[in-house]
Amino acid sequence: MFCCVTSVSFGKTSWIEEKIMALSLNNLKPAPGSTHKKKRVGRGPGSGLGKTSGRGHKGQKSRSGYSSRPGFEGGQMPLQRRLPKRGFTNIFKKHWIEISLAKIEANFNSGDEVTPEILHERGLIKKAKHDLVILGNGDVTKGFKISAHRFTKTAKDKIEKAGGSATEIVKVAEAAA
Predict the structure, then answer these.
(1) From edge to edge, which strands make up the β-sheet containing 145-148?
(2) What is the mean pLDDT of residues 26-35?
(3) What is the pLDDT of residues 50-109, one digit of tens each?
(4) In whole angstroms, what is the distance from residue 26 CA to residue 112 CA?
(5) What is the pLDDT of residues 103-132, one digit of tens each?
(6) Alpha-carbon separation of residue 169 from 54, 132, 149, 151, 164 (angstroms)
(7) What is the rounded (10 degree) CA torsion for 154, 160, 163, 167?
C-alpha cells in the first residue's frame, strides 16, 4: 500500500513524486533524531569516556555504589533544614468539594435530582469522598432537587426562588451526637 506525495517549489517549477508507505505495524520506526546510541564508557581514550568513564578522579561520586540522596549538599546543611519552620498541619481539617450553581444549571435539566453520587457519575466532581458544598455562583432558571452537605445562603435562595428544593445531607455520626 503506497501513498503518493507531490511537491511543487515556487520559482522554478519542479515536480517531485515520492512513494511513501502507509503507516502500519510492520513499518513503524522512531522519528529521526529521537533515538541515540548507547553511551559506552570505559572503552579507551578515543571515545572521550575512557579511563575514569566521565566520573573524574577520586571522591565519593567516582566510586561504585554511589547514589545521592535528594536534598544532599555534600555535608553542608541542606536547604530544607536551614529554613525556619512555622505552623502545623491540622490532620482533622474539614475538606469540602465545591461546585457552583452555574455548573449544575449547565449539566442538569429542570426537575432533575442532584446528589453527590450523580455529580460523580457525570464527572462534575472527582469523588464523593469529602462533603459537598453548593456555591451561589451563576443564575438558576430550572427547578432542581439538590441534596448536599452544605449550601451557601445565596445558593439556597437562588434554588428556592427558581422553584427547586435544597436538602442538607446529615451524616449518621453527626445525627447521633
Answers:
(1) 113-114, 145-148, 165-168
(2) 92
(3) 999 999 999 989 999 999 899 999 899 999 999 999 999 999 999 999 999 999 999 999
(4) 52
(5) 999 999 998 999 999 999 999 998 867 899
(6) 65, 9, 5, 10, 16
(7) 110
User: Alpha carbon of 2 to those of 16, 22, 25: distances in Å?
Assistant: 16, 6, 15
Residue listed under C-alpha cell 445558593: 155
The CATH label, of 3.40.50.300, 3.100.10.10, 3.40.630.10, 3.90.1150.10, for the domain at 96-176 is 3.100.10.10
Q: Is the pTM here over 0.85, yes or no? A: no
- Cα 149–Cα 151–Cα 154 angle in degrees, nearest 5: 175
Number of residues assigned to the chain: 177
What lies within 8 Å, CB to CB, of 161 at 6+ separation is 140
Of 47-56, 85-94, 131-140, 166-175, the one with minimum mean pLDDT is 166-175
What is the rounded CA–CA span in Å between residue 177 and residue 167?
20
What is the domain partition of the chain in residue ranges?
A: 96-176
